[in-house]
Amino acid sequence: MVKKIVITGAGGILGKACITSFQKKGHQIVAILSPGKKLSYTTISPVSVYNADLMDESNTQEVMDQVIKDHQTIDTALLLVGGFAMGTINNTDGTLIKKMISLNFETAYYSARVLFNQMAKQKDGGKIVFVGSRPSLDAKAGKGVLAYALSKTLVFKLAEILNEEGKEKNIVSSVFVPSIIDTPDNRKAMPKTNTDLWVKPEDIAEIMEFATSEKGMALREPVIKVYGKS
């Protein structure tokens, strides 16, 4: 069955891997990019591209409304937008807290709200995928990335609430929690780390595809940890 998949953060490394994985299964992709951006890579088949500032609620609503108008049905949403920042309680001020909440939580919430309400109208409901973080589950890991960890904690709670709200509507929300993702930026930032332990973007994408497919219907875990060997 061909599905319509919305992917925010489609211009990133994980976004590219997800587009490839879902297109291999024949699904139609709706890619959401930042204002003025275009896909910088070649895809297996054509992709519908929209631009939105997902930190702006009204712009997100406007663009998502247009996506729904154009495509009618949204089967799955992969909400991949996010950002990272270092900082302990000693040097994390309110500005950084607000920045991380805006980038990691508000972008997810503004998108999920519109898409959830659309899925609630659909006979078959839908699936929403969020990206969590290991430091949000592990206080020891979180103390050095305080603002980041706190912002991602809100994502876990949002998925939990949406799962409760979606029970009667056949809407399932999941949070995928990767360890360090093997990307060029992470390799540059941690040149002495054993990257063999990191999880590959392609592996995360394939697990997301399986979890949101018919074969993954039996998988009801709201939190799916993808840690690789780390």
Structural notes for this entry:
The chain is an alpha/beta fold and 230 residues long. Helices cover 44% and strands 16% of the residues. It has a single domain (4-226), classed as 3-Layer(aba) Sandwich (Rossmann fold). It has helices at residues 13-24, 57-71, 94-121, 134-137, 139-142, 146-166, 184-189, 201-211, and strands spanning 4-8, 28-33, 48-51, 76-79, 126-131, 171-178, 223-226. Strands 3-2-1-4-5-6-7 form a seven-stranded parallel beta sheet, sandwiched between helices. The longest helix is centred in the middle third of the chain and has 28 residues, at 94-121. The mean pLDDT is 93.
SSE arrangement:
Layout: E1 4-8, H1 13-24, E2 28-33, E3 48-51, H2 57-71, E4 76-79, H3 94-121, E5 126-131, H4 134-137, H5 139-142, H6 146-166, E6 171-178, H7 184-189, H8 201-211, E7 223-226
Parallel strand pairs: 1-2, 1-4, 2-3, 4-5, 5-6, 6-7
Biggest sheet: strand arrangement = 3-2-1-4-5-6-7
Q: N-to-C terminal Cα separation, in Å?
A: 35 Å
CATH superfamily: NAD(P)-binding Rossmann-like Domain
Number of domains: 1
Q: Quick one: CATH class? A: Alpha Beta
Note poorly predicted spans: none
- What is the CATH architecture assignment? 3-Layer(aba) Sandwich
Order of helices and strands: EHEEHEHEHHHEHHE
Shape descriptor reads globular
Number of helices: 8
Structural class: alpha/beta
Helical residues, percent: 40-55%
Radius of gyration: 17 Å
Largest sheet: 7 strands, parallel
Look at the structure and give the mean pLDDT. 93
Question: Proportion of β residues?
Answer: 15-25%
Q: The CATH topology, please?
A: Rossmann fold
